What we know:
- The protein has 657 residues and is α+β, with helices and mostly antiparallel strands.
- Among the domains are: 29-110, Serine Threonine Protein Phosphatase 5, Tetratricopeptide repeat, CATH 1.25.40; 139-229, no CATH class; 236-253 and 262-361, Tetratricopeptide repeat domain (Serine Threonine Protein Phosphatase 5, Tetratricopeptide repeat, Alpha Horseshoe), CATH 1.25.40; 508-656, Heat Shock Protein 90 (2-Layer Sandwich), CATH 3.30.565.
- The chain is built from 24 helices and seven strands.
- The chain has helices at 2-29, 34-47, 52-69, 72-88, 92-109, 112-130, 135-158, 162-181, 186-210, 213-235, 241-260, 264-281, 288-308, 312-328, 332-349, 352-376, 379-384, 386-450, 452-468, 474-505, 518-534, 554-571, 602-606, 625-636, and strands spanning 514-517, 539-542, 549-552, 577-585, 588-595, 640-645, 651-656.
- The longest helix is centred in the middle third of the chain and has 65 residues, at 386-450.
Amino acid sequence: xxxxxxxxxxxxxxxxxxxxxxxxxxxxxxxxxxxxxxxxxxxxxxxxxxxxxxxxxxxxxxxxxxxxxxxxxxxxxxxxxxxxxxxxxxxxxxxxxxxxxxxxxxxxxxxxxxxxxxxxxxxxxxxxxxxxxxxxxxxxxxxxxxxxxxxxxxxxxxxxxxxxxxxxxxxxxxxxxxxxxxxxxxxxxxxxxxxxxxxxxxxxxxxxxxxxxxxxxxxxxxxxxxxxxxxxxxxxxxxxxxxxxxxxxxxxxxxxxxxxxxxxxxxxxxxxxxxxxxxxxxxxxxxxxxxxxxxxxxxxxxxxxxxxxxxxxxxxxxxxxxxxxxxxxxxxxxxxxxxxxxxxxxxxxxxxxxxxxxxxxxxxxxxxxxxxxxxxxxxxxxxxxxxxxxxxxxxxxxxxxxxxxxxxxxxxxxxxxxxxxxxxxxxxxxxxxxxxxxxxxxxxxxxxxxxxxxxxxxxxxxxxxxxxxxxxxxxxxxxxxxxxxxxxxxxxxxxxxxxxxxxxxxxxxxxxxxxxxxxxxxxxxxxxxxxxxxxxxxxxxxxxxxxxxxxxxxxxxxxxxxxxxxxxxxxxxxxxxxxxxxxxxxxxxxxxxxxxxxxxxxxxxxxxxxxxxxxxxxxxxxxxxxxxxxxxxxxxxxxxxxxxxxxxxxxxxxxxx
Length: 657
């Protein structure tokens, strides 16, 4: 009986929702949370080229929020930025899917800026896909890319959006450069090169006008690539010293600007291009080996940065540059290794399935547009049906009220019965609650102690900055901002330790092992802590052999290294160093973090990793919770951790895996 009433209730509820859906959706789609959209844009711009995975996670969360609140504008921009982030990683099919989902919403909202952005990005994906296509398909894709860019450029100029206009001009230059490469007629080929250069110059002028450093770096990189193509297509021969110098200057300018704007994605591109051009020039220069060794060094760095932003197509470019350099050095074993890596990575980016899926999505989009035009003509017919629907709504509401009444009576009977059973279960739960309260009290004690100092420091800094802002100079403002950054890093690290400790308390730490390059993994941790160390003029030296590889959980091991290195920096004097090293010993890998700080007594060393809420040397420095978490993680990884220290002689932490 209850099941039948419930089904009838759900049917009536769904009926009412269907009848009201058009009107409700229309009202809710008009809402626009500009604050949430601004946060989305700021977050993506901050992490797009330094931590792509973090930006993707944030965009996905924002997309879910937008769908939940039926905020169409926020949903469209979340899809748009997700498309760009997946494009950055070389996942073209996924990027295409998100762009087309976004463009449909932008069209309905009449958002010209968003619509133009999607068109521009779709054009770039077509250009990226043309790289591995046959000559005939390549020409078609490049032509379609220019068409999308042309539409986007017109829209940007209509709304006077300078940055969008400049990006379209730069993208036109990129596509025209490739069009020139496949043009057999020398005269027409030169026209396309000239047109590409003109587009780059117009884009560069706008970027300089609006102060966009990163985009200026892109322009320098693209101009260097164009001149490289132009020199070879003119003579079909090797580069002269003058031509090499001209191209190298553009690449170095772009690299400098990418570093300045903290664009790890761009840094990888510039380094990979430098490696390629040096390998090419080595064919004609007497000092062949020196150029090849420099090219290998640049390509290795490019690979590290590509891995840090998880960009697949940057990885295979770096692999190919390493293959070429080692081949010219006649180190064929290494050349073969990197060529195999290049082929595997390239195939994962430019698969036939992706190309077909993208073509299918584009066709489906065009068909849906035609269908939408037909649906508009049916609006008058739908309006005439509104009156009939209103009558159905009245009947549905009456049935709903009746069903709710019967359901309410039955629920009262069941509630009384369940109440008796609940009392029994409640007694059993009380014991568990007492244990949870004890854990909560301990956690609150830790939070109040460990967070007091960094929060107080953060408040003091921001208060001073606010009250003295009009009286201090730029240098002091920079100093305040650096201190604020360090305080926020301390809070972040402490919060991570708290979360990991909390998970461990519930015995939920899971280990997922893979093969990692230990030097690269350590380098990523050092990058996060570099600004923290710079405040005290402390250098963090990574002396781990670049060839050491280990099967472990990279995420968990990074948490431990982050904590240990941060502690070493914290307790080291200014103008000192922290050393990170690793070596094999008796089939075990031993990692060492060493500093020249104040050291510890024997008692402090003995209790360093014990769960007693004490920290070495300074009762106000924290609970030592990070070291407890580190010990638990290392044990989960099947290793052990210990310390050696003497007062005023520094501390050395050892990890054996």
